[in-house]
Amino acid sequence: MKLIDKLKEDHIGNIYTNEEIDKILEENKYFPIECDEDNEEGIFKYTNTKSQIWVKYIRENEDYLISDITFCTKKKGKTKVRAFRTVEEIKSMMDYFRDKKKYDEFLIFVLGLFFARRIGDTLTLKWSDLYYENGRKKEILNTLLEDKTDKIIDIAITDVAWKYIDWYCDAANINPMEHINEDIFRCKQKDELPQNYTDEEYGKAIEKQEAAYRYQFQSAAKYNGIEGVSTHSTRKSFGRIAHEINKFDPDCLPTLQTVLGHADLETTKIYIDIMAEKAEKMFNDVGKYISDIDSGIVPAIDNVPVIALKTNDLRDILKQAYLMGRENISKENDIEIMNQLLSMVDEKRLS
């Protein structure tokens, strides 16, 4: 039985949480597509990088009734949403919102970079998520329930994040203590909600606010000549920047998986485009190999394994090699010394 037929037989008409649907697809090596620009209401999208599966649903509060499951090819003209590629792109977006006094949009943008949350979740933030009732600033944001995953992720509110939050309060002339139980980002739709509004009514207001921010975001991107980005690019940028800074830390990807709230490490790798870059390098390597053959050059293949060491461990090993070299001027013990040093490397190597 084909995969799509089996998924339909097993799951159409059943009710699941979003996390349960993610798990079902991930068991079949399909992972969530997290892209605000391409998301249609009532559809979850998954990919294995070669094809997409779309899960159509009917939502009832936090539960989803599966109405259809289909294979789908990517629409023509659509491009994959990417992270910001350069520091200049990020700076130009910040300057656009700041210079045009679009203070809400500015803070939404930078909090997307600092907190790595989806735009809809950022728009639900309240001042009480950042401050205690006595006015003291929080160091950890642990009250935000993510709409997509129903998870609460511990988010560090760093000194740098507070720098921009404080700037926003000054620029927008807002005293958070006067609005402690209110949403940080107001909008007409929220203000017009009835006093005892339902979760569904609030969700619709968020969707309209999100659409308004998306328009402002795309206006800023167009003004700065930046293509291929969406409101989701700040979250993707957090992942890219975090990985670039910490890629030699063996715990980098598992930590990033936790921060982003992904159910699977493979999702994180695909999400920050690690696998796409490795695949591109593989194509380039094979291409160069064939080109060298055609040019009469004997292709060189370097299969020497890379061994990762902490800087301090490498320094200790080099120091030991230096001392052992001084103590053994003759070459009689060269092999024994080399074996001792290799044993030290093997003990210290990072898995």
From TrEMBL:
It comes from the Bacteria. Transmembrane segments: none annotated. It holds the Pfam family Phage_integrase. The keyword tRNA processing does not apply. Keywords: DNA recombination, DNA-binding. InterPro entries: DNA_brk_join_enz (IPR011010), Integrase-like_cat_sf (IPR013762), Integrase_catalytic (IPR002104), Tyrosine_recombinase_XerCD (IPR050090). Residues 80-284 form the Tyr recombinase domain. Belongs to the 'phage' integrase family. This is Tyrosine-type recombinase/integrase. It comes from Kineothrix sedimenti.
